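Q:
Got a chain?
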Amino acid sequence: MTYSLDFRLRVLSVKKKKNLSFAETADLFGVGVTSLVRWVKKPEPQTHRHKPATKLNMDALKEDIQLYPDAYQYERAERLGVSSMGIWHALKRLNVTYKKKTTQTSQGRSRKVVLLFVKS
């Protein structure tokens, strides 16, 4: 949970005015000691992530979805060289959902329909 900047500054000012330890301040306000230590170093909340882009090529994933609509996520992960959680997050970013087709299974066709929604 992200605390607002004014709350962080108020907590730090109370800590300084009353000359409290980190543990006492944390108990008083119900926050973690580690959070207080972090707020002393940098009181502003972090607004962006420092994480590199995924190594998964989204165009390759779209092509894989078209070629193998019934594939499991771990199979896609093996083909594309990423983790299955990476595939899950990428499918979520692409708004890909799977819907069961109950009428077509007796005819030997695909059991699932892949719906690829394009974000506008």
